[in-house]
Amino acid sequence: MKTKNVDIYIAKQAEKARSILKELREIIKSTIPKVEEQILWGYPFFKYHGILAGITAYKKHVSFQVADSLPSEYRKILEAKGYSLGEKRIQIKFDQKVPIIEIKQILKTQAKMNETKI
Asked: Which stretches of the chain score pLDDT less than 50?
């Protein structure tokens, strides 16, 4: 059975993942107050003028992803801090702190991009 809301998704995850997921959710909601959350493709996604970001739990990490590519200026900072990155994703291992400042800036950048698409 597929998860129907973000609270249930987070509650079903391993304890190490839950704390990171909760922190990311709070960062997203506090940075973009008008964000709407829902489950898409079985995972929590946050919408603001389209898809803004998503969070996903895995066995050894949590993934934070945005709709478009991660801005290059934040990629360099995050790589220097030891985070594994994909084109649109930051992988946060359970022994790493959530990069709050960078995620807030990435969210603001993505929100502005979403606003201009309308």
From this structure: 1
